[in-house]
Structure formats: C-alpha cells, structure tokens
Amino acid sequence: MKNLIVRAITGVLFVAIIVASFLDPIAMAALFALVTGLTIWEFTSLVNEHIPAATVDRIISTMAGVFFFLAIFGFCFDIVQSKVFLAYLFTIVYLFISELYLKHENPINCWAYTMLAQMYIALPLSCINILAFHATPDGVVHFNSLLPLSVFIFLWVSDTGAYCCGSLFGKHKLFPRISPGKTWEGSIGGGILVLCAAAIIYYFEQTMNSGNAETAQNHILTLPQWMGLGLTVCVFGTWGDLVESLFKRTIGIKDSGNILPGHGGMLDRFDSSLMAFPAAVVYILLLNTFGS
Known about the structure:
By secondary structure, this protein is mainly α. The chain contains eleven helices and four strands. It has helices at residues 2-21, 25-50, 58-76, 85-97, 99-102, 107-132, 146-169, 184-209, 223-251, 266-270, 273-290, and strands at residues 133-135, 141-143, 173-175, 179-183. The strands form two sheets. A two-stranded antiparallel sheet has the order 1-2. The longest helix is centred in the C-terminal third of the chain and has 29 residues, at 223-251. The N and C termini lie far apart (49 Å). 39% of the residues are buried.
C-alpha cells in the first residue's frame, strides 16, 4: 500500500512537471536538457557496470548529449546558427580518437555504446524541439507546445489503456520473450483510447483557434491526421518499451535505476518516448511533404 501511494504521488508530480514545462520554451528546454543528461548518465553507468569489456566516458558523453539537445533547441528557436553543431562534432571525434590512447580491452564495444547513448537518447529527446517550433513563411518562429505535449499524452493514455484492458481481457501475449506482461488485448485497448484522446485534442485545438486566424499554425492537423499521429505514437511507444526491456534483460536488471520512487529510473520512464518522438517527427514531416 505504501509503495502504491509513493508511486501515485511520483506519477502525479511527474505528469505535472512535464505539462507545466510546456508553458514556456525556456522551461521546456531546461527540463528536457536535464532529462537528457540524467538518462544518458544512467545508461552509461549501466553499460560500465554490467557489460563486459565496455567502458563509456560518462562525463563527456553526458555533456555531449545535453549540448546536442540545447543546440537543437537553439537552432529550432532561431537563436543560434548551425555553426553551433561544430562543437558537438568535435566532441564525437574526440570520443573516437580517445580510444587510441585509453587501451581498453575492446574499443569497438566502447565506441558502440558511446555512440548508442547519443543515438538512442540524445537524438530522440532532441526531437521534442522539432515538434515544438516552426517557422512561418515570413521567417517568424513560433512555439507551440501542443504537438510535443500530445505525444506524452498519447503515451500516457496508451500505457493506462494497455494496463487496464490487459488486466481485464488479456489472454494473448504480445511479446512473451521480452515482456511477458504485455498482451494484444491490452495494446488494442490502449490504441482505442489513444484514438479517443486524439479526437479530444483535435476538438480542443479547434476550440482554442476558432475565430483567431493569427493563432492558427501551419501544422494544425485534421482529425484523421491527429488519429494517425496517435496511432504512430502508440505503436512506436510500445516498441520503445520493448527495446528498453530487451536492454534490461540483456544485462540482467529489473529497473534501470531508482531516481523516481516507485517508477524506477529515467530509462524506465522515458523508454517509450525514445521511439515515439522520432516517429512523430517523421510522421509530421511526411504530412508536410505530401500534404493532407
């Protein structure tokens, strides 16, 4: 009972902090730069502790990931130029060259997990910025929190729906080799609830923008497009959860950490989003490219 209360309190605070951060672009950047750093630090610590012959420079890798997130933020917000990425490229080159002198047993493993931290965590979380900012034809950059926030909403609704429907109706295992608790019934139930959430977000957006052409953004989605985004997030979020479960099973741990009481570590909380955000960006870019 005590653990349930702790888990509930942590969950409410977790949701409240994320939602509040999207009220201001600087607050959003600060929160998710912190999330990026903590998640990379946790991931690289797990690699160093549990994977033989693999050593990752936690400090440099974490700093590089945070810098990359902030560089994407600044570039999307139009406050820095693309030259800012040169520092990140120099850091990546350094991480490669440093293995020539460190004399690790298996430098290929070290390179692989070092780059994985950037590709698996820093890059996906940086996609939040791509969804949050867009430029009008006259070059003015706008901050719109609805798209990135909707990804989190879809993930939360999907997880809740999958848990409830799986508990009530779950009989057929979705991926028993990696996650025995997930069922097809739960996933379908979560997907249906996500479609409902997409419809609610669509009507909320229409209500907020009705009668005010200046607030209508270029990336406003139609109802089918919102539903498509919801299903994209639902599917890739499930894969993200499974990817992290496979990682934990491979190294033989149950939770990635204990930084969030009752919820485990940063990877445990953001595993779904690490696949969902890149998928959402691709989905939106395809819509923009090929039209409605």
